[in-house]
Amino acid sequence: MNQIITVAGGVIGVFAIFALITSHVGEWIASLRNMRATTLFDGIDALLSATKQAGGRRGAGCRKDAHRLLYAHPLIAISAPRTKPSYIPARTFTLSLIGSLRDYTVTNDAEGKADPAVHPMPRVPSS
Predict the structure, then answer these.
(1) What DSSP string describes 43-104?
(2) What is the pLDDT of residues 23-61, one digit of tens each?
């Protein structure tokens, strides 16, 4: 019985060490290739491109402007001044997204370009 416990402990220990090593190597490769920032950027791009314009086309112009405004928002730009961030906390992302979409909608309303079907978010009066 003692031998079974010893073997089980050894197998668990080897598995734990192997898991730590492979996790560390994976993180090292991801940081070298900047995969986290690219994946986050692509995910936000997919999120913003899900908005459809009238006629069934994807809102490419809306996506590019909103995407640019999102990454230029002070809450995100301060955390990663010259690079794309690899992580954005949920609260920061929410505040930045709402702020950049509100700015985008207000700017396009002033220019007469906003379409309520594309930009359904109501403007909040500034005080």
Answers:
(1) HHHHHHHTPBPTTS-B-HHHHHHHHHHHHHSHHHHHHSSSS--S---HHHHHHHHHHHHHHH
(2) 999 999 988 888 888 888 888 888 877 654 444 444 444
